[in-house]
């Protein structure tokens, strides 16, 4: 049997392709006019029609763009969904999901949450009568008791940002289905290479494709992958109506990045495992947050629902002050001090003053996000150089 075959519609069949083949071929077809193997950048705002309403499937570039369509097909295949919808950023993608709700609806989410997601729920959508609840989603009794008739969405991060907590997706999604509640899983930290939430029962999967999917710190782009076409149609409507679309060059760059997703993720995950082991033994470090440790909470769940433990980790210092953290942050040479994650280069950051600054300090401290917490996004450099850089920074 050939490695890759076509179905009757000349699209690659997702069922026969391994993930490593999907990233390169799924949803991608040679350009029909030239045979170009790479999807062209269709840099156009509109399309000529043969007659009013008679066109070749494309009318206006806010509504459709062939480069964007190829990326959406590719992402749907990677997450084993029926449809995918791309947006101008990860938060624009989340904004569209929240617009599926109406005043009076309620959201349940984890209390360990990316600061931008928290800000969007609390400081934007709460003004439109949509109420968020932030709870420990590992507390099954608390989750069941928080659900009520107004609960319409459960928004989940796992691993969480920045403490890498692992949540049981299968349990959460099954419970949501029993109550007719939508689930959307932010899969940014794991990527579809490590975790595919739709296979575990999720309705939607959210990505800041800026991170691991594009993978080279040169794109801002978001996406939502849907389990069924009906949900995809609703999000495509919002994509067109609100207009928060990515440009064709950003879609092209994301498609190009995805082709090496499996190679980049595996190298970064291998590096992270060695770095986590080094940090755990260091005398200046109080605790390392990394799901790959056997004594890490829900390690067995991570082992079950992920292909690896990821390339993100955090640690806090025994001297629990921002000043102590700053000394480490300012001493690295290979690790660059910057927000974001998931690029080929390693990054170091201070969540309390960077990615999670929008969360009130008392709420940050309540979940263990201390002033000395440092987050690492492990890249694909040689692991010996990365460890040496951290060793020097830690003194």
Describe the structure.
By secondary structure, the protein is an alpha/beta fold. The chain folds into two domains: 14-258, Aspartate Aminotransferase, domain 2; 261-393, Aspartate Aminotransferase, domain 1 (Alpha-Beta Complex). It has helices at 19-25, 66-78, 90-98, 115-124, 140-146, 169-178, 191-194, 229-242, 248-258, 261-280, 299-305, 322-329, 361-366, 383-393; strands at 83-87, 106-110, 131-135, 151-157, 182-186, 204-208, 222-226, 285-289, 312-317, 336-337, 347-349, 374-377. The strands form two sheets. Strands 1-7-6-5-4-2-3 form a seven-stranded mixed β-sheet, with helices on both faces. It has a five-stranded mixed β-sheet with strand order 8-9-12-11-10. Helix 7 links the parallel strand 5 and strand 6. The longest helix is centred in the C-terminal third of the chain and has 20 residues, at 261-280. Mean pLDDT is 94; it is low at 1-12.
Our estimate of the beta-strand percent is: 5-15%
What portion of residues is helical? 25-40%
What about the largest sheet?
A: 7 strands, mixed
- Specify the number of helices: 14
| Poorly predicted runs | 1-12
The secondary-structure class comes to alpha/beta
What is the H/E string? Answer: HHEHEHEHEHEHEEHHHEHEHEEHEH
Relevant CATH superfamily of the largest domain: Type I PLP-dependent aspartate aminotransferase-like (Major domain)
What Rg is obtained from the alpha carbons, in whole angstroms?
21 Å
- CATH structural class of the largest domain: Alpha Beta
Write out the strand line-up for the largest beta sheet, numbering strands in chain order: 1-7-6-5-4-2-3
Q: Compute the number of structural domains.
A: 2
Gross CATH architecture of the largest domain: 3-Layer(aba) Sandwich
Shape annotation: globular
- Record field, number of beta strands: 12
CATH-defined topology of the largest domain: Aspartate Aminotransferase, domain 2
Question: Please, what is the average pLDDT?
Answer: 94
* Alpha carbon gap, first and last residue: 57 Å
